[in-house]
Amino acid sequence: MDQPPTLAASSPDFPLDTLIVNALLVAGGPECRVIRDGALGIQGDRVAWTGGPGHQPPPARVVVDAQGAVVLPGLVNAHCHLPMSLFRGLADDLALDAWLNEHIFPAEARFLSPETVTAGALLSLAELLLSGCTTVCDGYFFEDQVAEAAVLAGIRAVAAQGVLDFPAPGVPDPRENVRAAADFVTRWSGRSPLVTPAIFCHSPYTCGPDTLKAAKRAAGDAGALFQIHAAETRGEVEQSRKILGKTPIAHLHSLGVLDAQTLVVHAVWADERDVEILARSGAGVAVCTASNMKLASGIAPLPGLLAAGVPTGLGTDGPASNNRLDVFSEMGATARLHKLATGDPTAVGAKTALFLATEGGATALGLTGLGRLEPGWAADVVVLRPDRPNLTPAYDPVSLAVYAASGADVRHVWVAGRQVVEEGRLLTLELAEILAKARSLAKRIGGRGA
Amino acid sequence: MDQPPTLAASSPDFPLDTLIVNALLVAGGPECRVIRDGALGIQGDRVAWTGGPGHQPPPARVVVDAQGAVVLPGLVNAHCHLPMSLFRGLADDLALDAWLNEHIFPAEARFLSPETVTAGALLSLAELLLSGCTTVCDGYFFEDQVAEAAVLAGIRAVAAQGVLDFPAPGVPDPRENVRAAADFVTRWSGRSPLVTPAIFCHSPYTCGPDTLKAAKRAAGDAGALFQIHAAETRGEVEQSRKILGKTPIAHLHSLGVLDAQTLVVHAVWADERDVEILARSGAGVAVCTASNMKLASGIAPLPGLLAAGVPTGLGTDGPASNNRLDVFSEMGATARLHKLATGDPTAVGAKTALFLATEGGATALGLTGLGRLEPGWAADVVVLRPDRPNLTPAYDPVSLAVYAASGADVRHVWVAGRQVVEEGRLLTLELAEILAKARSLAKRIGGRGA
After folding, report:
1. HSE of A143 in the Cβ direction (CA atoms, 13 Å)?
2. Residue B17 touches partner A, C-beta closer than 8 Å
3. Per-residue pLDDT tens digits for A398-425
4. Which residues in chain B are closer than 8 Å to A77, comparing Cβ atoms?
5. Cβ distance of B295 and A339 shorter than 8 Å
6. Does B229 touch chain A (CB under 8 A)?
7. Among the four A4, A301, B289, B291, which has the fewest Cβ within 10 Å?
8. Contact indicator for A27, A50 with CB cutoff of 8 Å
9. A55: pLDDT strictly greater than 50
10. A339 contact residues in B (CB cutoff 8 A)
11. Spatial contact of B218 and B185, defined as CB atoms under 8 Å apart
12. What stretch of H or E contains A29?
């Protein structure tokens, strides 16, 4: 995480590049420390200073007045398919197989190209930054375009090239699938401080054992994250038990692909033994609450995962199945759903939800030093608006962030010390151009969408 | 619904007061008709004209360019306790009885006054209008202050004075509870075209049979809506069965208080017989999805209510239990939750959710001519922002409104033909003053909250 080149180096006169004052500062971490009337100093790509009333901050080149609003760590979206924003709303309210086979797969086969992947990724990245997400884990095809879009946007990304055992966008020959992914990881290793390349096997039912093992080996050789959808639907688990004699997660375990560099996505139907397997392996999990609700997939065993110590984050999933990329909404939905599912309103509280969407998610992705606003941690910072009735009064800023805020309440965002959103406007991308491009492509895809 | 006095009468030269052009017009109604490249004309407090490409609209004094964005009927919030925004986030992640008895009831007993009720109501009304809600059904105490706040805000309100069989804010003597409510209805009958007075008995467990019957009689005599919480928690139903030998809804039915002028709030634990009772009685139901999730109350039998033809709307519930008043979020949460609960992603689709949050809710509240954008219907109109990545592309504007939008995507709002929000700014209330007042009161209530 070197300092981005656009930032001037700090000087002895101004040890801080940016100082955010009048902050209702949510420092994060498992205990979610809050500093009222706080301030936060950024130097380079790191938080360099935090303090409360009575603490004199060092001088700073730029001072930003949060006007008493909530300031919190940038949010981590632990699972997405960024380019699929081009298919947002193309088809909804359908059974999963009809949605996938009759709408999404045909649209992908027909319309995916480097051009459309870039356009869809930029559209999603604009949405993410504007709604306070500073790190996203993506899994898709033409992933070079996604990674380049992330660099343009100035967002942190774990970008994973997709692997399927049938012809895929950009990888027509399945025999090349693992090599294409490994080559992607090689191309992006060390290329940008913002992009961490990775490999994304779609699922145990679309990737055979040899592919899974080869892809995991390639990821392991490069020290890269290996991610995979598993146990998303009841049908998938039933089929796996019938064909393989074990659950998808037990199958992955038996192939040796679960370890601390693996991210299992969904895990909705993980049973107690699966949770044990995950915990012992060190693998992380991305829980996708809103998508799992909309597709009627089920409820992930989040309290069990947390009790077992599985590193867990929250993912929006792709914008064709959610249909928005608002990690604030994911926090609120996740806390509410698990209270409902357990019948216990003390289950999955606001602090837990915020942890999952910050440091917890970063840990699940294998990223360290990310997700708290403490000196030495990454300067990924979100400042909420001070003038929103839904964020007033402020008895508890963590409750506000989880239960009352939406991504549209975000005012300023920094990623790695660089301001990327100011007063609700993107500084890194031309939003109007991105919207126009997406609308133009949508006319081709759906015949409408202007 | 007379024309508000602030509107000049239309003249023969300008048959329309306002014409909204370049609209992706969601007309509403059960079939949810959509007009692309549409326009909508307002005259007085009604929609006077709608049309698509090739239709020449009449001249208008003011033309508003929606820039291709979604235009939809103003949303109806079928259940709220507006003044409780002052207690938003005061206590969360607690069991219902601890939350109520240790935090909310003591705070209400100590701090409710005409002053605080006005401040809390204005804060909530600002939030509602800014997020596209144009009609709210409230139930609380010091309801004159709530009704006055609604008139100031320029929002439609069904305002219901609370009734409890113990000392209540503003009604220290329970023997006066029904008379106080009846007097409130009398005072507000015909007083404002925006305010429909009503009576709110808190619940069957806080109001005895005599109170319920007397309150219903008073409401009936005045032609006013009678609303009541019922079957919110499993414990409430169990207690009712034990003490009264019947469910809360069967109990209300046996007292004769269920009819087409009754709104039952929550109905989470309504069983099949209760649903039948509701359907035969003509009573409406307000479903409060997010609140019922957060308090771990349960899942209302929405598909059953709809199949039985029960007039049903969506309520946010109060801002201390939700904790936001965003009917867009309620639509999305409701559709997602019932897909999940039924295991069927085709259950409760986007069109159904939008209907519940517009015409369906209005019907449940006993309001007619409200919730569609068709000539002759109320000119309660919401225009979304054209520049939001989460609302792009626009294959299906209903899907966008339900699954991708949040209240913060609202750009313009009209209530009864009067513009109340322009470019995301309130035209009717001084937001800065309202926020400052709420913060000042919060310091007294919570010792913090600046």
Report:
1. 32
2. no
3. 999 999 999 999 999 999 999 999 999 9
4. none
5. yes
6. no
7. A4
8. yes
9. yes
10. 293-296
11. yes
12. none
Show the domains of chain A with their CATH numbers: 16-73+379-426 (2.30.40.10), 75-364 (3.20.20.140)
Question: Which residue from A293, A324, A448 is facing B395, i.e. has the nearest CB?
Answer: A448
Please, are residues B27 and B374 in contact by the beta-carbon 8 Å criterion? yes
Query: Which of A96, A124, A323 is nearest residue B403 as measured by Cβ atoms?
Result: A323
B239 to chain A, closest Cα gap in Å:
18
CA–CA gap between residue A87 and residue A116 (Å, rounded): 11
Length of chain B measured in residues: 450
Angle at B172 between CA B169 and CA B176, to 5 degrees: 110
Residue of A nearest to B92 (CA): A399
Q: What tens digit of pLDDT does each residue of B268-308 get? A: 999 999 999 999 999 999 999 999 999 999 999 999 999 99
Q: Does B198 touch chain A (CB under 8 A)?
A: no
Structure tokens at B413: 């709002």
Nearest to residue B275, comparing CAs of B254, B244, B306, B246? B306
Q: Which of B329, B435, B445 sits opposite A389 (nearest CB)?
A: B435
What residues in A contact B123, CB-CB < 8 Å? 389, 392
Q: Both tokens of residue B273?
A: 């017989």
Say how many residues make up chain A.
Answer: 450
Closest chain B C-alpha to A93 CA, distance in angstroms? 5
Higher-scoring residue by pLDDT: B98, A315: A315
- Are A230 and A212 in contact by the 8 Å Cβ rule? The answer is no
CA distance A400 to chain B (A): 7
Among candidates A296, A349, A388 on the partner chain, residue whose Cβ is nearest the Cβ of B344? A296
pTM of the model: 0.96
Residue type, B54: G
Tokens 């079928």, located at residue: B78
Q: How far apart are CA B299 and CA B418, in angstroms?
A: 37
Indicate which of B99, B340, B348, B429 best probes the interface with A, i.e. most A CBs within 10 Å of its own CB.
B340
B133: region left, alpha or beta (phi > 0 left; psi from -120 to 50 alpha): beta
A101 DSSP assignment? I
Q: Could you tell me what percentage of chain B is helix, strand and coil, using 3-state DSSP and rounding each to the nearest 5?
A: 40, 25, 35
User: Is B431–A387 a contact, with Cβ atoms under 8 angstroms apart?
Assistant: yes
Question: What's the token pair of residue A85?
Answer: 């924003």
Strands A312-314 and A284-287: parallel
Residue with tokens 């009685």: B281
